[in-house]
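[retry 2/3] Transcriptional regulator LytR: previous attempt timed out, resubmitting with same input.
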Amino acid sequence: MDKNQPAEAHVLTRAQRHQKKKTKKNKGKAWLIALCVLFVLGIGGYIFRKELMVLAFDTFLADTVKNTLDESYAPIDQLPRGGGDVLMNVDELSKEPFSVLLLGTDQRDDELARTDSIIYSVVRPADNKVLLVSIPRDSYVPMVGTPTIKGTRSVTKINAAYAYGGAQMSVDTVEALLEHDVDYYATINFNGLTDVVNALGGVELPITETIENKQADHEKFTIEANKPIYDGTEALNYVRYREDSDFKRTERHRIFLKQILNRMKSVENLTKIPELIGIAGNNFKTNMRSDFMLSLAKTVILNDATPEISSHMLQGEGVSRDAWYYMLDDSDLEETIESINKWLDPNSTAEDLIVDDTDEGGKSHTDQEGQPAGDTGQ
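[retry 2/3] Transcriptional regulator LytR: success.
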């Protein structure tokens, strides 16, 4: 054949032409299916990432976490939530407003355990809001139940309630002070805080000036300002620091709670939950059942943002008697009780939930966006 002549066209039969069109059509379908799968996995995975996190939590973590949480269950003598003998189910419990008394102890060696941090909180799962009412540990209040315990005082610093009668007396005393029930309590020893923070890879803290313990009878430490992340030891020192004021100290406790919650919500830290709870171990006790805590955890995961936190510290004045006490202001206490009442009402509006966050000098401890203001040391 002359190579300069065009090649003879290859004539296809009808069957061959049909098969060729079918092959092209199938290839087109394959590409379309592949694109659809990528869309579902990509866009769908982004849209439903929270649901996928909950699915992963239920599939891989729930049983392990539940078993560990069951070991931290420590009930006290009180009526169950929901009214007398009628128990609310887990779904109902995790949607209605409820109160939790947070007790942070700082027991070292053979010291008598007292509550270094006392926060009455109201959680509103339906609208993703939390109220934190800090009760200064030196508040001079009546102790509930002391007549039955030898060697106790009927009126003294509120942090002695835990030393006298553990979580039970702390709950009873706070209920009497704030005139509202404590639905749940949770006690954690600060000794477990260091390992928890380190397991999370540290925590962000808004420290704008160096914090340093200087007093002779205090443990010496320095926390540098403006670091991107702080380790467990620095976080522990941050919540322990008390050389400025009790108001600032309780503010730091609230800031830390918010920042640690932010840290735990990240996808990479979700799988660390069993490890974190294991670290807490004997340092954590609560009367919340594991099913309720797991349901609440999934509610937090499914929300678009970290709960909006409002805070207030009971106001008063320091006086020196046989020791230094914090005498609570009656009018502020009454206003706080009324505020708690609104927060526990599921029908309250956003305006009802506005909280006075100023200290005794009229200075606000939140920034313009309603978040805790940056902390400063001495």
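[retry 2/3] Transcriptional regulator LytR: The longest strand covers residues 115-124.
[retry 2/3] clearing retry counter.
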